[in-house]
């Protein structure tokens, strides 16, 4: 695995930086891509040309770039907001993966890891475009997995829940407490935990895992309703 080439989009965000650090720690040469400096490649994944001389050499593609700050309920979602989320989170993510595939298929090796969201599975009030874009991404990645499994290429999604980022850190204390009450583990996910999962999926030894959506959400996706007592004993008939 030493010096395999990995590409990480959205590299300058909190999760992105953790992913870059983790991959470098385990021996990858990492090319960073972001709309903001100091990334190695500055571009808008939704609209800018993708340089073939960079993307063609990628052996591990981590599609992490995304928009998370669009908030609007379905009945008042503007077309502009809808398009913004779909363009970046779905179309931009697919463009990056697509640009890496020819080289991977030629070498008959590749790891594709897309950062989705628990919202793709559960939905999320106020973020209809975001949830739709991430659900669409999962369908695209599963299809990529089907089409490329015979070429030694795996394709998986990770589904983070609520992550400790500057956005969640800026919440009012009351809002933060309310958020934590919805998480069974009682805490936010750390960016390093997402990065560790991605590092595992990026490894040579993960070649038997493909077409999966792997949650890392502190149990949020488990659901809260149950018919057992607080002590964990089964309900009696």
Largest sheet: 7 strands, parallel
Overall number of structural domains: 1
> What is the level 1 CATH name?
Alpha Beta
Poorly predicted regions:
230-237
Give me the side-by-side strand order of the main sheet. 3-2-1-4-5-6-7
Number of helices: 8
Pairing-aware structural class of the strands and helices?
alpha/beta
Q: Hey, roughly how much beta strand do the residues contain?
A: 5-15%
> Shape from CA axes?
globular
Overall mean pLDDT stands at 92
CATH-assigned fold name? Rossmann fold
CATH superfamily: NAD(P)-binding Rossmann-like Domain
Cα end-to-end separation: 55 Å
Provide the CATH architecture. Answer: 3-Layer(aba) Sandwich
Radius of gyration over C-alpha positions, nearest whole angstrom? 18 Å
Which sequence of SSEs, written as H and E, runs from N to C?
A: EHEEHEHEHHEHHHE
Helix residue percentage: 40-55%
Number of strands: 7
Which SSEs are present, and which pair or pack?
Elements: E1 5-9, H1 14-25, E2 29-34, E3 41-42, H2 52-55, E4 60-63, H3 79-107, E5 110-115, H4 119-122, H5 128-148, E6 153-160, H6 166-169, H7 173-181, H8 191-202, E7 213-216
Helix pairs in contact: 1-8, 3-5
Family: Belongs to the short-chain dehydrogenases/reductases (SDR) family.
Subcellular location: Secreted, Cell wall
Protein name: 3-oxoacyl-[acyl-carrier-protein] reductase MabA
């Amino acid at each position: 695995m030493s010096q395999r080439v990995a590409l990480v989009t959205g590299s300058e965000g909190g999760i992105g930086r953790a992913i870059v650090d983790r991959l470098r720690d385990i021996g990858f040469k990492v090319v960073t891509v972001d709309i903001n400096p100091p990334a190695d490649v500055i571009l808008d994944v939704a609209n800018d040309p993708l340089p073939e001389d960079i993307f063609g050499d990628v052996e591990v593609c981590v599609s992490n770039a995304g928009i998370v700050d669009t908030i609007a309920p379905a009945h008042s979602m503007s077309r502009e907001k809808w398009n913004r989320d779909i363009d970046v989170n779905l179309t931009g993510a697919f463009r990056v993966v697509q640009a890496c595939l020819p080289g991977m298929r030629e070498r008959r090796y590749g790891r594709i890891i897309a950062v989705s969201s628990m919202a793709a599975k559960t939905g999320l009030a106020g973020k209809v475009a975001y949830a739709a874009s991430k659900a669409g991404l999962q369908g695209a990645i599963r299809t990529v997995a089907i089409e490329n499994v015979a070429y030694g290429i795996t394709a998986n999604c990770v589904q983070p829940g609520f992550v400790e980022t500057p956005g969640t850190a800026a919440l009012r204390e009351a809002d933060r407490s309310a958020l934590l009450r919805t998480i069974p583990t009682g805490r936010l996910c750390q960016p390093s935990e997402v990065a560790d999962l991605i590092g595992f999926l990026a490894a040579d030894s993960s070649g038997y895992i493909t077409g999966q959506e792997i949650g890392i959400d502190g149990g949020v996706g488990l659901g809260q309703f149950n018919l057992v007592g607080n002590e964990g004993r089964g309900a009696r008939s």
